[in-house]
């Protein structure tokens, strides 16, 4: 076996072992890696060195020191192979770039299905498990419309709003990612096993927990940071004032992601959380366009399902003429005459289309006869 392959395998094995050490959560893991450089270095470090890492006490030092003998990483990796579960470390090229930007990303993702580049264009839809018929209808309508526009729908496979968002995205022919608060071989809630199989076929199930891990109340807030971390923004459809969906909104704000909320009946307890978010500055959502127009330029271009390079989510809604004009405009100053020449469209259509693209914040005028992309 080539050295590079051995090195990659050794790195993955150490990363998986570190993720399985009791007491090493995402923040402690990040501190350990910042201080010691790599997962291998963490396990090679002497107890006296580990004790100098902020937040690492005697109990955790013992757990790390004993990990080589106490944690059977080979069995964990074999279990994943037998069940078609991919282990994706944060250093892997397959690791979602958006998720890697948050301050406490998972070191290891367990993935059943496939995460593809187009999933960089993702929006989370979350809400209460105790949804009303109105809430279900709004989740279904928004998930279907955004999926048809080319966005991947991310949610948590929970009852209520989450399940409605996943199902509607699938029915619209789109992609969806489900982030679990349990292991991938312990689907929760159990009645969503069939839904989980459909998600695998048209997206992926994702967890940071070992495959047989049971659902635990403390795991769901942690799960929520991954839901929002995978997404450009989060839409809260229905949420009571004490709700996991509001935790998701808080994660999104901390991660610098857009927060959207769907208004509901003023006398509905299920809408009180959304109304609070709106009072605090969340973007009101009535339609798919409200979402696409609000999302800013991507931090890095990504590839849509049809293979186009996309720099801004609003591009997903362009017609052929608008796309032709946009493709003719560079990030540098581009003359109107050049846009006419490259697009092959008459001047009056180019000018009217540029006005539309300006309103959608895809291009800007530099002078009377020059434009550029954002």
- End-to-end separation in angstroms reads 46 Å
Oligomer: single chain
CATH architectural designation of the largest domain: 3-Layer(aba) Sandwich
- Rg, Cα atoms, Å: 23 Å
Q: Mean of residue pLDDT? A: 91
The count of domains is 3
Question: Percent of residues in beta strands?
Answer: 5-15%
User: Percent helix among the residues?
Assistant: 40-55%
- Describe the biggest sheet? 9 strands, mixed
- The computed structural class is alpha/beta
Outline:
The protein is of the alpha/beta class. Helices cover 45% and strands 14% of the residues.
Which short descriptors sum up this protein?
DNA polymerase, domain 1, three-stranded antiparallel sheet, globular, alpha/beta, disordered N terminus, 3 domains, 374 residues, Arc Repressor Mutant, subunit A, Rossmann fold
Describe it for me?
The protein has helices at 3-20, 26-36, 39-44, 47-50, 58-70, 73-82, 97-100, 133-149, 161-171, 193-201, 219-229, 244-254, 272-279, 288-294, 320-327, 336-343, 347-359, and strands at residues 86-89, 108-113, 122-126, 152-155, 176-179, 203-207, 233-236, 258-261, 283-284, 302-303, 309-310, 334-335, 363-367, 370-373. The chain is globular, with a radius of gyration of 23 Å. It folds into three domains: 1-71, 5' to 3' exonuclease, C-terminal subdomain (DNA polymerase, domain 1, Orthogonal Bundle), CATH 1.10.150.20; 111-294, Rossmann fold, CATH 3.40.50.450; 318-373, Arc Repressor Mutant, subunit A (Orthogonal Bundle). The chain has a nine-stranded mixed sheet, with helices on both faces. The chain has a three-stranded antiparallel sheet with strand order 12-14-13. Helix 8 runs parallel beside helix 9, helix 11 crosses helix 12 (244-254) and helix 15 (320-327) crosses helix 17 (347-359). By secondary structure, the protein is α/β, with parallel strands linked by helices. It has 17 helices and 14 strands.
